[in-house]
Amino acid sequence: MNKSKDTINWALVGAGGISNKFLEGLRATDGNPSAIVSRSMEKAKDFALKNNIEKYFDNYEQMLDDPSIDVVYIGTPHPTHKDLTISALKAKKAVLCEKPSAINAAELKEMVKAARENNSFFMEAMWTRFLPPLLTVRKWLSLGLLGEVKMVQANFGYNAQYDPKSRIFDPHQGGGALLDAGIYPLSLISMVFGGIKPADIKSQLYIGESGTDEKAAVILSYGDDRIAYAAAANRTELANEAWIYGTKGKIYIPNFICARTAKLYINGKDDEQFQGEFISNGYNYQAIEVMNCLREGKIESSVMTWDESIVLMETMDAIRAQWNFRYPAEI
């Protein structure tokens, strides 16, 4: 991409619900949703007409051949991410790929390798990482306001209507609570502890009737006396909140999955609360990060690095290994 280019053109891959959410956020930035790609021309055209998008394709390679496209947003099911990402990177397109960016760490390492070899931007779409309250939490932590962080607790769970054909429950589409929901609390914990690999992992899960995990609980050790707890579910509504505990105080993030606020409690002092501006639906902030990186000539975000995405994927691989759970795409 020409770094001096004023308008950055995006192509959205997949016409499902997540692409609609991302498009809403993208509209709140200076990025241009230029194209939509779907396996069905009818779906692609319908999405384009409804959302005033100029170009629509049912052929991925044809879209990649379009020199006007700068960034590809991939919002398709997890097992498709690797091939779509690598093809885009080889075509010298920047890529923002929905979380989890792959089915396992081996796939993700191939994707990162392609980004390096083609000098093309790549980032996992961990949109919560870029929300204003989370930026403030990182600032509080970097200033040492909590002292030494000793414990983190984070949960994310929702109660989805059971449908064995849906992406959420279908193992062939990478379904299950861990990859879909668990990655959020695990990402928050990783952020707090600096993106390092946990020293030890203990976990428990419940496998539902479709053969995918519907509930999971994980305890992670980060050495010394630093531990974390994460819970995830796709058929059970959880509190969806996070707590960070340090030697000098604690931080509370209500509804951290789409945080609008964060509260800092320092021992013996008045508490502090972030209640700043929140624009659109929150998906805009990750899009802004991508475009800022492109304009600065970067191929990797310093906020959601390749190494940290790999550590997260390796952590989830280790959790699934304890359950002896593999996806059909891995067998």
Key traits:
2 domains; 331 residues; Rossmann fold; globular; eight-stranded mixed beta sheet; Dihydrodipicolinate Reductase, domain 2; alpha/beta
Structural features, described:
This protein has 331 residues and is of the alpha/beta class. The protein has two domains: 9-128, Rossmann fold (3-Layer(aba) Sandwich); 132-277 and 312-330, Dihydrodipicolinate Reductase, domain 2, CATH 3.30.360. The chain has helices at 17-26, 41-51, 60-64, 81-90, 105-117, 132-142, 177-192, 284-295, 306-323; strands spanning 9-13, 32-37, 55-57, 71-74, 94-98, 122-125, 149-157, 200-207, 213-221, 227-233, 242-246, 249-253, 262-266, 272-274. The strands form two sheets. It has an eight-stranded mixed beta sheet, with helices on one face. A six-stranded parallel beta sheet has the order 3-2-1-4-5-6, with helices on both faces. Strand 12 and strand 13 (262-266) form a beta hairpin. Helix 1 (17-26) crosses helix 8, helix 4 packs parallel to helix 5 and helix 5 packs antiparallel against helix 9 (306-323). The radius of gyration is 20 Å and the shape is globular. The model has no long low-confidence stretch (mean pLDDT 95).
